[in-house]
Amino acid sequence: MKNNQLKVRLVLMLILQYAAWGAYLTSLGRYLGMAGLGPQIKWFFAMQGIVSIFMPTLMGIVADRYIPAQKTLSLCHGLAGLFMLGAGFYCMSAGGTVAFAPLFVLYSISVAFYMPTIAISNSVAYNALGKAGMDPVTAYPPLRVFGTVGFIASMLLTNFIKIGGVAMQDNYNQLFFSGILSLVLCAYALSLPACDINRGESKSLAEAFGLKAFSLFKQGQFAIFFIFSMLLGASLQITNGYANTFLGSFAADPSLANTFAVKNSNALIAISQASETLCILLIPICMKRFGIKKVMLMAMFAWVFRFGFFGAGNPSMPGVLLFILSCIVYGVAFDFFNISGSLYVNENTTPDIRSSAQGVFMLMTNGLGATIGTLCAGAVVDATVYNAANPSWSKAWYIFAGYAFVVGLLFMILFKDPQKKTA
User: Fold this and answer.
1) Tell me, what CATH number does 323's domain have?
2) Separation between Cα atoms, residue 122 and residue 118, nearest integer Å
């Protein structure tokens, strides 16, 4: 009974953890575009990658050696929530003249403290499960699914809840929603099982920041793997930043303005997260049958279809079916590389650098890759949509699809099936 109660408490933590992110991640671009900040969307989403390069490591050291992880989680969410609320209050006071600089500064500080909480919440859960005598490897994944459920629920609420007759996805209220959820978790985290700190453990600067794992770049196949992790990571934030903005652009056509895909774009995009949840269950089967390289290739070419279907679709029937297909293949595109890539790192590194190597993988995908990809994608959208004489979202999506195809083709040629190394 106690173990079941603990699982319920951790499920609530994970729901709040990812609901705070889902409140704005897929709809912020839509609001920014409507507020006249369309050309600046890339900077808001690039900032998530920039802070992911260093903030998770810094706050991880704090949680390991100075402040127990559950209290560090509370502190980070408290600051993230306050600055996100500050961003919302600024937009509310600015009315129709939202300026880039003040909103960007408040938002950036918020995400700088939010992004480390993804790893810290995992640590809190692992600690609690371990102390309760459960194996985190088997007990945690079923709980983590509820994080995605929280993300989806938050997206749907942002889509359907209207305040003053305006859906939250269309204005700054999504920022208030996210900030409130973070503050709720700030308070709730203090009630979670206590985590230990290791003040006496001495690490070199290189070990503390995971720099030792960079020696893996000396190995040819690992170097190729990490480089392609960065190249594929470039695809991660493209649809987060621009899919909702793209769907909202069809409102300019009176014949399409009232279609479901335009009025409820966040709900449509939520199919992507539902697919992600289901595709997690397929990974063990596909890994066993096809092996790591083929599974990662499936992910790479799934990105081709993810972008290509957006380019070819439209909100009316039957074009909207292509949008739905794009959302369905997202599960393969996201899960099959991120999870299989993490397994590749785990199986082909020695225990002394295994955790650090996972950090390098995350740095290349969610840090450098996402940052570079978002800025490059922004340049493409600027050239084909915002600064083009004849704006064409389809052209932008086809360019992204072509990029993903070339990355997949090169990976197929250059990356060899790995040989598992024994610890």
Assistant:
1) 1.20.1250.20
2) 7
Assess contact for 29 and 244: CB atoms under 8 A. yes
Q: 75 is written with which tokens? A: 């502190």
Q: Token digits for 166?
A: 């305006």
Query: Which residues are CB-neighbours of 110 under 8 A, at least 6 positions away?
Result: 79, 80, 81, 83, 84, 86, 87, 179
Query: For residues 226 and 362, is the Cβ–Cβ distance under 8 A?
Result: no
Q: Say if residues 408 and 297 touch (Cβ distance below 8 Å).
A: yes
Residue 34 domain flag: yes
Under 8 Å CB-to-CB from 126, ≥6 apart: which residues? 136, 140
Query: Is there a single domain that holds both residue 174 and residue 297?
Result: no
Contact 112, 44 (CB under 8 A): no
Q: How does 211-222 read in b/e, with b if 16+ C-beta sit within 10 Å?
A: ebbbebeeeebb
pLDDT tens digit sequence for 190-226:
999 998 876 655 555 566 555 666 777 788 788 888 8
Residue 409's domain comprises 212-423
pLDDT in tens, 304-317: 999 999 999 999 99
75 in the same domain as 17: yes
Radius of gyration, alpha carbons of the chain: 21
Three-class SS state of 134: coil
Q: Which two tokens stand for residue 42?
A: 């890339």
